[in-house]
Specification:
The protein is of the alpha/beta class. Helices cover 43% and strands 17% of the residues. It has eleven helices and ten strands. The protein has a six-stranded parallel beta sheet, sandwiched between helices. Strands 6-5-7-8 form a four-stranded parallel beta sheet, with helices on both faces. α11 links the parallel β9 and β10. α1 crosses α10. The protein is globular.
């Protein structure tokens, strides 16, 4: 089954490009449209109703672009809005949730850490996921300020190092052996995180799992593209500089109001 319509991907900003990269790598023949709602970042501080409204606004934009499938490349939007999106729209949605399962299943110390936004950690979907692992101690930490620094192009700043140190040190002391990154922005912090964590602590994010699930849904429900290396499209509703830089200046980024 062939379907050359694009895959739509949205996030509260530039972080979902970490998910986009995994999808693009696994499915290079798929045309992708990426929507960075940086004007409203971070979603993690907003109410559930605000997050649902923003997610629907982004979905409406991508459906106007004739997207065949939508990836919600934002943990906060997935955990707060994906049920409402699936109920309202007749298009498959792929969500992104913190990868608690592989961490909890493989932990030797039965203690794992999760760094995520307030919106994700407070969500019903997250609480349901953690309830399944009663034998595992889950050390939760809200990543206050991290998304704002990433969106501001301050990934390698001393302020970022200080914040990460303050968030990760209690987890190290609690004897975690897995750290779950519960926000699609956070994979861009892995180099700094590795400098702080002892070598035995493994870092897990959801990018590859989301890409594999996208491939599965395309094959089973929507159809695979046969385009030859289509050019991805990136949109942002704020200054495009940080998004352009995080994409290593390889792709054009358009600024539009949405």
């Amino acid at each position: 089954m062939e379907n050359n319509q694009p895959i739509g991907i949205f996030d509260s900003g530039i972080g979902g490009t970490s998910i986009w990269q995994e999808i693009h790598q696994l499915l290079p023949n798929e045309k992708t449209i990426y929507l960075a709602d940086s004007k409203n970042a971070p979603y993690g501080q907003k109410s559930k109703q605000e997050i649902i409204a923003l997610s629907m606004k982004n979905t409406d934009f991508l459906l106007k672009m004739k997207c065949k499938l939508i990836v919600v490349a934002c943990n906060t939007a997935t955990t707060n809005a994906i049920q409402e999106l699936r109920a309202k729209y007749n298009v498959p949605f792929i969500g992104i949730e913190p990868a608690i399962k592989p961490a909890a299943t493989n932990s030797k110390t039965q203690t794992i850490g999760i760094l995520a936004t307030k919106g994700t950690l407070n969500s019903e979907l997250f609480h349901k996921a953690t309830e399944m692992y009663q034998d595992t101690t889950i050390v939760e930490q809200v990543g206050h300020g991290l998304v704002q620094l990433i969106e501001g192009g301050q990934i390698n700043s001393s302020e970022m190092d200080k914040l990460l140190q303050s968030y990760l040190q209690p987890m190290i002391e609690a004897n975690i052996d897995y750290l779950v990154l519960g926000c699609s922005h956070y994979p861009y912090l892995i180099p700094q995180i590795k400098k702080i964590l002892p070598e035995h602590i493994r870092i897990i994010d959801s990018g590859q799992a989301v890409a594999r699930q996208t491939q599965k849904v395309l094959q089973e429900k929507v159809g695979i593209s046969n385009l030859k290396t289509p050019e991805p499209v990136f949109y942002s509703n704020t200054d495009t500089k940080v998004l352009y830089e995080i994409l290593e200046r390889k792709y054009r980024v358009e600024q539009i109001d949405f």
